[in-house]
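Dear support,

Our group has been running a series of protein-ligand predictions, and this particular one with aspartic acid is the one our PI (initials K.S.) wants archived with full inputs and outputs. We had some confusion internally about which version of the output was final, so please treat the block below as the authoritative record. The input we submitted was:
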Amino acid sequence: MKRILVLHTGGTISMKENKETGEVNTSEKHPLDEISAMLARETEIEDEIIFYLPSPHIRPDHMLKLGQSIHERMAKKNYDGVVITHGTDTLEETAYFLDLFLQTRKPVVVTGAMRSSNEIGSDGLYNLLSAIRVASCDEAQDKGVLVVMNDEIHTARNVTKTSTSNVATFQSPQYGPIGITTKTDVFFHHKMTRYDSYPIQSINKKVSLIKAYAGMDGTLIDAVRESGVDGMVIEALGQGNLPPDTVEAVRRTIDHGIPIVLVSRCYQGVVQDTYAYAGGGRQLRDMGVIFANGVTGPKARIKLMVVLEMTNNPTELQHMFS
Ligand code: ASP
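Confirmed final output from the archive:
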């Protein structure tokens, strides 16, 4: 029998809808209590509430505490896998943080729900059951942190919330899911080829995320730098370009020793130094801007916060993002 640790952090999966007002909020009795009984014959479940937070309230220090709690519990007991329930709004950031932080080959699966526990078509219990089945599956080992929702298995690195309300919200644009679940089986069809792992002890660096737009100038970049950040992520245009009026603010920021990581605001493709015009990727790269591929702006921010705990040496940072 597999032994699975289930850690709850809050979110819609642990909320109830008020049938009179339609409001959705945290409920007094944990709606997922019944799960242990349902799985008792095949899986030994130990569950624990770590936080009771809607996911817009989750901060990087909660993510670190969650990661440390997983390490502590896994060191004390031989769990076969871990499942985390989480609100969907920031689920991908927590999942990616855990992917960077955890040092385990065992399956770690994050799940959530788009409909609260007493709504018609509620997906919480089903997603939790699927997540537990994936975490119990030997093939789920060595795949990094996984996100299981709506019969699909995604990597923490590639998954993103794409719809505000559809139960099929979690997608991995460009890459697709790495597997699927059915009522009886778990099928994997891809494997991650690269892992980074950073065993940090704290997460205190201030990193801001800015989105580029047509006609942008350097006001926002200068203001963010002057607010005292340790790093900045910019969601740039297209292949990794910025409007020309931002260039001097970018230069000032790098000259102040504040690293700038560039991703694209496009949700597919890679950033590269193709264009040599003012503000083009070539000029930004030559100025020392770090190009990050395969992650969204919010995830690049989590990674920059994590790696800045280890170094702010520009060459090492370039290497960590390459
Ligand atoms: N706003 C909710 C949260 O992220 C949404 C959800 O859980 O699906 O906590």
